[in-house]
């Protein structure tokens, strides 16, 4: 049987090979283990194998899991849609939120971030390929939103996050991820101090790293398949 530790190791090998192929240091890319739908025992197994950063989509599920794992020094990333009635939970329980796609969400997170905690680290979710069913702002709105979010004192804007539609072909995957990279660079050129480009999942992490990803969000390759949402 392949354990979570073994699968984590093979994802790290994939990341290292992709970095090497792209001429990038392996320290450029952080692995976020996406533990949505998997229980606390799976997270404990990944932690035992050296993994500290975990991503969750469903906020209620995540908050319960975070409480059950409070004895471990984990870093929790919210990568799913954030409804207004969930901002308080995100502000109180997570270290990062990748899925900011409107100013109102950011403002609520800013107001609700508890005093004793460091700023919430955030990324703007950009709909980089114009997928019709997805959340995320159009690329053309990224600069204005980034400036507004960067001004909020209890948040710290770190970068951009994308979830492109699945593509089979490596070069096509790279082409979409490159658009995100170019947008990221243009925001940096406009003076925003961004260091995080959150893109790439189980099926396209090599292409994402090739195009400049600094954080890949991997679920299936570590924890196995999920029942359809
Ligand atoms: C589920 C999910 C992932 C992980 O996807 P896999 O294909 O299982 O690696 C990454 N990012 C987001 C936003 C997700 O919802």
Automatic annotation (TrEMBL):
Residues 9-227 form the Alanine racemase N-terminal domain. InterPro entries: Ala_racemase_N (IPR001608), PLP-binding_barrel (IPR029066), PyrdxlP_homeostasis (IPR011078). The keyword Cytoplasm does not apply. The keyword Nucleus does not apply. Keywords: Pyridoxal phosphate. The modification N6-(pyridoxal phosphate)lysine is found at residue 36. Pfam families: Ala_racemase_N. GO terms for molecular function: pyridoxal phosphate binding. Its cofactor is pyridoxal 5'-phosphate. Belongs to the pyridoxal phosphate-binding protein YggS/PROSC family. Pyridoxal 5'-phosphate (PLP)-binding protein, which is involved in PLP homeostasis. NCBIfam families: YggS family pyridoxal phosphate-dependent enzyme (TIGR00044). This is Pyridoxal phosphate homeostasis protein.
